[in-house]
Amino acid sequence: MRWLSLGLILAVLGAAEARAQVVALGASITKGYHLPESESWPAKLEALLRQRGFDVSVSNQGVNGDTTEGELSRLDSAVPEGTRVVIYESSGNDNKDEQHFVSDHDANIRTTVSRLRARGIAVIFSDTGPISDERIARSAGASLCGRLVQGVPPEDLEDSPNAGRHPNARGTDIIAARMLPCVLGALRRKG
Asked: Domain for residue 129, yes or no?
């Protein structure tokens, strides 16, 4: 009986470790800015993945106002061991004002992607910044999944004082649905 209990405990622990992990790393658009956590696109993406039979946890590691420097500095704590896929939104906050000064935006993107890839993590890059950011991410080994707010109609992007435009709940539905095939592809390749 004792061995049966030990076996059951090990099976449960093994199932938890086998569970796919996805991290959404970014700034306010990833965080959901002014929305409840359940309305953020990472939460909605997790629900879509589960509806398709994937036992997945999507961790929302978006931080309002973050920069690529901040994302890089918190990379190890934001992306724990066992993570299989990271959806990376390099911050559109870099150098937008004196509070968000970043000395090397391009190197931060390159280093973030390279460090994740060195850990065997699939990186999906989706951003709101200049097209050159996509080239940098791809050259470092990330796959691309279009612009982060691509397909979100203007009426579903709300102006936020001092923070730019952010998707409302309908906009985050669109982002989650557009991210779904990219994440499914990465999970299947990593499977």
From this structure: yes
Query: pLDDT digit string (tens) for 161-183?
Result: 766 789 999 999 999 999 999 99
**Number of neighbours of residue 100 by Cβ within 10 angstroms:** 18
- The tally of domains found in the chain comes to 1
- Residue type, position 65, single letter: G
Taking alpha carbons only, the member of 23, 74, 20, 66 closest to residue 191 is 20
CA atoms within 13 A on the CB side of 139: 11
Domain that holds residue 153: 22-190
Q: What is the pTM of this model?
A: 0.86
